[in-house]
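Deliverable D2.4 — example input (structure tokens):
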């Protein structure tokens, strides 16, 4: 009797569970389908399948290795089904489960690759490169060359065939000092020895060594042209760069440069500001063995220089072939120099010793204004250019040379 009761109870439980499952199956829906790559048509495994009711997440699942998916036991409602996978665009499908539409086949879901095609990539050289052309050699200034010095004059000595005298900043090209300095392809009335000290190395984009200048540059009697190209960015919108540097020798030297550019429509506005300040020291000894004039010379020189160089301008692109440009360069330079020269003759009775004191204060205020019109012809490299330039220069200088019969206790430094 007890055994019959146990079997009867077990039978009732089985019937109850079966009824419940049957009821659940009758009153619930399901969706299924397959997810593939839109381009390659390959199945995508492990894609997230998310069911939402309005903005609330109800349930979900993932695709199998073959891309198939199925989601069961869904109430009869309206759902939005989202398919999400890393690297692909989200796909959304709206469905409606009802008692008459319990199973919905979504078919093949195509996911599109979300890879973005870049319009362009700007590559900035960290190291300097050299391009050899028919009439010139172009040095693209990289960080390695900038670190060689704070000013244009200091990095020039690291360029092949160019040398700068450390005492007077005289520049020479292939051993000939009869060379002209251009800035952005235009001549300047600033003395080359001063100009090389005023342009910060961080503002220089390229240095062109034109060893075979054409008639365009009126090159008669010159050994060549050194053209210093400053940064001028013509990308759309507003952009700029700020550089600061310190170089250490016997004394520290500071240099800063600010480059700004704003391109909108047919107009491009740009500006460069360079600042340099520092002390320079130089000393040496010379011994002469000329008969009856044997002597030993000692000299000490010092300079304290500060410069401001400002260039601003605009380009008006009338159309693809015609461009109107204007720029101005404002230069402010101040230098204080002093030194001593001590000449000690071994035969003091015949040639008295010489002790010379030197001091110098100079200022340079120069202005350049340039208006340029350029017409580009269909053939590349052929153009017509008309320009007008106005220069103004003011260079007051006070110098003192004093010869003393007796030496000072300590020389000027």
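Example output (designed residues):
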């Amino acid at each position: 009797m007890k055994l019959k009761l146990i079997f009867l109870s077990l039978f009732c439980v089985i019937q109850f569970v079966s009824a419940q499952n049957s009821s659940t199956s009758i009153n619930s829906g399901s969706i299924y389908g397959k997810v593939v790559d839109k381009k390659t048509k390959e199945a995508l495994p492990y894609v997230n399948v998310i069911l939402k009711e309005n903005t609330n997440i109800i349930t979900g699942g993932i695709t199998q290795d073959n891309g198939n998916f199925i989601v069961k036991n869904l109430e009869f409602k309206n759902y939005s089904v989202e398919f999400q996978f890393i690297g692909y665009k989200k796909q959304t499908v709206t469905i409606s489960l009802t008692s008459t539409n319990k199973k919905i086949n979504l078919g093949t879901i195509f996911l599109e690759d979300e890879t973005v095609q870049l319009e362009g990539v700007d590559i900035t050289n960290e190291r300097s490169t050299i391009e050899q052309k028919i009439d010139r050699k172009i040095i693209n200034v990289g960080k390695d060359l900038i670190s060689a010095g704070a000013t244009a004059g200091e990095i020039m000595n690291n360029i092949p065939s160019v040398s700068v005298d450390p005492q007077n900043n005289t520049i020479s090209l292939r051993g000939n000092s009869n060379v002209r300095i251009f800035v952005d392809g235009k001549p300047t009335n600033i003395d080359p020895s001063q100009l090389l000290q005023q342009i910060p190395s961080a503002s220089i984009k390229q240095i062109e060594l034109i060893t075979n200048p054409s008639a365009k540059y009126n090159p008669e009697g010159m050994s060549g042209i050194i053209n210093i190209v400053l940064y001028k960015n013509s990308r759309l919108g507003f952009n700029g760069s700020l550089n600061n540097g310190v170089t250490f020798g016997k004394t520290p030297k500071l240099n800063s440069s600010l480059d700004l550019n704003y391109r909108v429509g047919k107009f491009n506005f740009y500006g460069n500001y360079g600042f340099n300040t520092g002390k320079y020291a130089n000393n040496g000894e010379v011994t002469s063995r000329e008969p009856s004039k044997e002597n030993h010379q000692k000299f000490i020189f010092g300079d304290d220089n500060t410069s401001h160089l400002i260039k601003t301008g605009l380009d008006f692109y009338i159309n693809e072939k015609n461009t109107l440009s204007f720029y101005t360069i404002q230069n402010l330079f101040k230098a204080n120099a002093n030194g001593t020269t001590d000449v000690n003759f071994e035969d003091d009775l015949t040639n008295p010793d010489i002790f010379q004191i030197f001091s110098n204060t100079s200022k340079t205020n120069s202005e350049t204004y340039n208006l340029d019109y350029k017409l580009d012809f269909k053939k590349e490299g052929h153009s017509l250019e008309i320009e007008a330039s106005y220069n103004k220069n003011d260079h007051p200088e006070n110098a003192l040379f004093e010869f003393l019969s007796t030496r000072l206790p300590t020389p000027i430094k």
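The radius of gyration is 40 Å.
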